Amino acid sequence: MIENINKAILLLMIANVLISMKGFKEYSFLDKYKFQVSRILSGEKIRMLTSGFLHVDWLHLGLNMYALYLFGDIVTQRTSTSNFLIIYFGSLLAGSLYSFKEHKKEPYYSAVGASGAVSGTIFSAILLNPGMKLYLLFIPIPIPGYIFGIGYILYSIYGLKNQVGNVGHSAHLGGAIGGFILTIILNSYLFTYNLATIILLAVPIIFLLVFGDKLPKK
Description:
The chain crosses the membrane at residues 46-69, 81-100, 107-128, 134-155, 167-186, 192-212. With 218 residues, the chain is mainly α. It contains 11 helices and 4 strands, in the order ααβααααβαββαααα.
């Protein structure tokens, strides 16, 4: 229930809602703080952080905040609040950095959303609770967390290379990688108890990092 939500998660949700609402009402505010390659190249690095608190509409905002509420709770319960915040903000920046890498030759590429931070939070939750079951639309049976994680990475790679939908697949990938790395650094015991999950999730990530630039784009 909302009254039992971790205060750090609640504050992040409030910040996302308030900042996004201002962006909904004032395009100049959204334009000033969104992720945009040309502006970042000109020195406005702060956009890599601020873009993670802006959203295009209520649906975009609601989906990200719902995922943050669900998976953030798992992370804060199984590690410290300070570790969760490191994972959240580290994943946000990792998502922005990976997006910049993928789109640095596209000066007008722009994006907003907490998806990178949320993707990192989801992957952290999977590592910390590998036995978790996830229910997805149109799939009547629960999916083990590690299977979802592998599928998420593979679909995001496909989406990035084939420009599927108006979705920041690069931010999703960067955030997931950031959440994966930071979680195992901050919780080294996982190598003892959840090594199989680490290996299974590491395989598609290593594939992306080694061969990602060689994969053809649409």
